[in-house]
Write a structure and sequence with these properties.
heterodimer; A: 113 residues; mainly beta; 7-stranded mixed beta sheet; globular; B: 111 residues; 6-stranded mixed beta sheet
Chain lengths: 113, 111
């Protein structure tokens, strides 16, 4: 069974631009969560989508948004990029609907210049 | 929200040594995992262990849910064990699949 895939793997953007990252979960998984990892803040939860609905949201500004499609693939969008948004963005998938094991993708490394 | 405290923050070992990493939680969790982050940033699943003990080769983990802590044991360490180890936990009923991560333990195994 294929693992969690994320695209693109690397991205360089300029301040003020927007970016969209994509995550395809493991087949059959209905929950997708997004995390941001930075050297200063560690791994922080952004949001979780389950069956196309946002089920949980972390403490990030409204510039960070996401959605989930009927095939469980998820996208996250960051608008008006700031230098501080440079980070590794990781998504995780799980069956959802219970305390199940989560599996992480390889991440998208975003650099904002 | 849940607070996760990992110790030690850094650990340097000689190849062949054993080690124990600890994770304390501020609240009871029913979703608990250990990860190893590889040099490229991917989080590799080690254990899903909300309670009890599990073993996988040279690695084992124990979670004492009633006392809100978990331990990761690495025996006969190898240089390839180097990297950052994270524990993470959550409460499904209130937070869905959300995991709160500790700050990690940076493990260096020298030949």
């Amino acid at each position: 069974k294929a693992g969690v895939t994320q695209t693109p793997r690397y991205l360089i953007k300029t301040r003020g631009q927007q970016v969209t990252l994509s995550c395809s979960p493991i087949s059959g998984h209905r929950s997708v969560s997004w995390y941001q990892q930075t050297p200063g803040q560690g791994l922080q939860f952004l949001f979780e989508y389950f069956s196309e609905t946002q089920r949980n949201k972390g403490n990030f500004p409204g510039r960070f948004s996401g959605r989930q499609f009927s095939n469980s693939r998820s996208e996250m969008n960051v608008s008006t990029l700031e230098l501080g948004d440079s980070a590794l963005y990781l998504c995780a998938s799980s069956l959802g609907g219970g305390p199940y094991e989560q599996y992480f993708g390889p991440g998208t490394r975003l650099t904002v210049t | 929200g849940i607070q996760v405290e990992q110790s030690p923050p850094d650990l340097i070992l000689q190849e062949g040594a054993n080690s124990t990493l600890r994770c304390n939680f501020s609240d009871s969790v029913n979703n608990l995992q250990w990860f190893h982050q590889n040099p490229w940033g991917q989080l590799i699943n080690l254990f899903y262990i909300p309670s009890g003990t599990k073993q996988n080769g040279r690695l084992s983990a124990t979670t004492v849910a009633t006392e809100r802590y978990s331990l990761l044991y690495i025996s006969s360490s190898q240089t390839t064990d180097s990297g950052v180890y994270f524990c993470a936990g959550g409460i499904q009923e209130t937070s869905g699949s959300r995991l709160t991560f500790g700050e990690g333990t940076q493990l260096t195994v020298n030949p």
